[in-house]
Amino acid sequence: MLKYRFGLLSFFLISLLFGVSEVRAQEVLTLEEAVRIALERNYDIKLSANDERIAQNNVSRGNAGMLPNVTGNLTNNNSIQNSTQTRSDGQVNEVSWGQGSTLNYGVGLNWTVFNGFAMFARYEQLQELEKLGETNLQLTILTRVGDVMSTFYELVQQQHQLRAYDTAITLSRLRVTTAQNRFEIGKAARLEVLNAQVDYNTDTTNLLRQQELYRNTQIRMNELLVRDVNTKFSVPDIILIDDHLTLEGLSSQAAQMNPSLKAAVLNRRIAELDAKQVRAARLPVIGVNTGYNFNRNRSALGFSTLSTGNGLTYGVSASVPIFTGFNQRRNEQNANILINSAQLQFEQVNQNINAQLASAYQTYLTNLSLVRLEENNQRIARQNLDITMEKFRLGSITTVEVRDAQVNFVNATVRYSNAQYLAKIGEVALKEIAGTLTL
């Protein structure tokens, strides 16, 4: 009896040692490290950051039309002509293949000093577009960090299930060995050995399927982290669930921090500024211009064969629209419709966020209850398995009952792991919607 108990203990110890050795041979990836790598390398975050930098660069008074344009000009034209000139006194002058040239160069400045305040509205709009770029970057970061966290806890869940299947295989292997020994000494039929072998093969299949799923999830995580997809690693096994979230608190946080809602507010403001620019087209446009130019004209025939000049030019221009075929009124109507659409989109986003929160929070509460229930079920299944294995050791229980206890324990462990995972994913989803997702 003591020898048999030692053998049972050895199976568990060997299985545990092999599992520990395999984990130590791999990189242990923490959640903090995974998020840090994603923030540094993820392609979507980098692309969104580039868009945000472009929006930031676009915020300038020159881009808004507030500053003058200065240009340098150069024109050099040459000609070769046969020319005839008849003077008033009847004298005729002729030149064959006469060469002529015109040279003009200088610097000019044009500056629109007033355009119905459109330039000021445009500058404010560029600032709002910069804020929109920042908000879109926040949304991308929030989404990708949520993806990393979800995948991370999926790996934790799958590791839990791998251990459950490992335990099942260890017990099935013990049953095969025991059945074979009993058959050899004539205390069991061949059928008991075959049944034990079938159960062992079934558990092995389940383990292989779970290993495949775990490996594919590792590949997906490596893709999110933009590193070699074949990198193997493990993750810590702990899942800590925040069970103090309230719907009222989440709704209040979402109203202030949800990036999609902030983007909808900014889009409405951008539409209002666009309408302001459209209305500015009713007012006059006033501009000033100045420049310094040099010109030289040379001809082979005429009263003057060479003339030069240089000097300063300046002036003022003004224009006011009087009638544009009713296009101004149409443009203003369309701008007002766009403002209304932006308001409707804001309300739609707000409604959608509230619906997501309410639905996700209900799922979160259900999963919290399931965690407590499945934790108790798993503990009971563990106790039942221990009692069953002790009876099996004493030979006072059938192999069918052993298998039932074994399957019940594995299923309870898997359900408990799933409940933990779903509760944690629910927590992550709620904080992502509220815009407060942190480690």
Describe this protein's structure.
This is Transporter. With 439 residues, the chain is an alpha+beta fold. The chain folds into two domains: 2-41 and 115-163 and 227-283 and 325-434, Up-down Bundle (Outer membrane efflux proteins (OEP)), CATH 1.20.1600.10; 70-114 and 285-319. It contains nine helices and six strands. The chain has a four-stranded antiparallel sheet with strand order 2-3-5-6, with no helix packed on it. The chain is elongated.
Summarize the model shown.
Helices cover 65% and strands 17% of the residues.
Topology:
Elements: H1 2-24, E1 27-28, H2 31-41, H3 43-57, E2 69-86, E3 92-114, H4 118-184, H5 190-224, E4 233-234, H6 247-257, H7 259-279, E5 285-298, E6 306-319, H8 327-394, H9 399-434
Parallel strand pairs: 1-4
Antiparallel strand pairs: 2-3, 3-5, 5-6
Per CATH, which architecture of the largest domain?
Up-down Bundle
Count the beta strands: 6
Outline type: elongated
Supply Rg.
Answer: 40 Å
> What percentage of the residues does DSSP assign to strands (E)?
15-25%
Q: What is the CATH H-level superfamily of the largest domain? A: Outer membrane efflux proteins (OEP)
Calculate the terminal CA-CA distance, rounded to whole Å.
Answer: 51 Å
The strand line-up of the biggest sheet is 2-3-5-6
Q: Please, how many helices?
A: 9
Q: What characterizes the major β-sheet?
A: 4 strands, antiparallel
Give the mean pLDDT. Answer: 89
**CATH class label of the largest domain:** Mainly Alpha
CATH topology name of the largest domain, in short, is Outer membrane efflux proteins (OEP)
Domain count: the total is: 2
Structural class based on helices, strands and sheet pairing: alpha+beta
**Helix proportion range:** 55-70%
Unreliable stretches (pLDDT < 50, length at least 5) are: 1-24
The SSE order reads HEHHEEHHEHHEEHH
